User: Fold this.
Amino acid sequence: MSEKILVTGGAGYIGSHTTLLLLEAGYEVVVVDNLSNSSLESLRRVEQITGQSVAFYKVDLRDQSQLANVFEAHEFSGVIHFAGLKAVGESSEIPLDYYDHNIYSTINLLKTMQQFNCQRIVFSSSATVYGDPASVPITEDFPTSATNPYGRTKLFIEEIMRDVAVSDEGWNIILLRYFNPIGAHKSGLIGEDPQGIPNNLMPFISQVAVGKRNKLSIFGDDYATPDGTGVRDYIHVVDLSDAHVKAIQHIEQLGGVSTFNLGTGNGYSVLEMVKAFEKGSEKPVAYEIVGRRPGDIAECWADASLAREKLGWKASFGLQEMVEDTWRWQSNNPEGYSE
Ligand code: NAD
Ligand code: UD1
Assistant:
């Protein structure tokens, strides 16, 4: 019998891609999601691509009794925990909602796992926990800090999970710190579907290229970087998802708590991303330079050699493929899943 994995937030951007890769790797997948930032259509398309089915429960992780019903119905060999709110700006406006959806939900999940004797969890952390790093590339032992409630939820959850692991050595926990996920599955059937005005660079650029928005605002060209615009480590969502499959495969052998950066180790500037996108899409991307966005840093990229050593994982997609895959999804689905 194949192993069964619970994926929280599995209808979302990274969760749907990871669900697809888990199915392809031979796992059974159960998804819980409250669909607050996603659509069930993503999972229907995962089923279409793989020819396999995904059990879905519309459950809010803050509801412990509903969550317990899911654990009653299935025996899980592990959990991958994506569910949560993720907009940095919004987190300063409604911090209590962020603590509720991210931290309270995680506590409920961990308690329920404990109750049902399931002690393997992979968690979506973020490079945001490094704050403004003193140097690049960033290794996992760099000091951590947070400048906004979203980042604080990631830091707190990491700490909570470390405490849980100390309290009971039966727990196996992997904290994955993502750099900047972009791209989409090659099929062009699933991808990132932001609600409203995108906060992140890649979905904004692709909406300009497809004609949904007039121009990109580039937040500052006076950083201490080669062309003055911000530099980030963009990583293909399929590479990122593959790391989750490898994390599940290695979690027991690693034991305790492990923390891994997930990035390519390459940094690209905003202007380089615009140029790469114009090349990949053969569409112009109009932009203007505006002031810096508060809280932004100049540059950030990963040293991901620990994930290579311990998980046997390495990013394989280059920049041009990332933008071409983003464009295929965006141009085939200009209104995302809502068409
Ligand atoms: P997403 O919004 O597409 O997916 C998150 C999913 O969680 C959504 O489907 C949403 O409906 C669901 N959800 C939210 N609150 C819930 C709740 N209380 N109960 C049940 N479901 C709930 O986001 P994503 O980009 O796929 O990100 C997944 C995870 O990765 C998040 O934890 C995010 O913070 C983290 N992360 C994302 C990025 C990024 O750039 N996308 C970077 C670093 C870390
Ligand atoms: C942002 C979050 C970070 C989160 C990450 C992934 C902030 C301050 N940080 O990181 O916590 O983990 O997303 O979800 O929100 N840019 C523009 N114009 C735009 C959008 C972005 O010029 O319209 C620039 C930014 O200044 C930055 C780069 O593009 O230099 C990437 O921005 P973005 O995609 O938002 O990611 P991060 O800022 O790295």
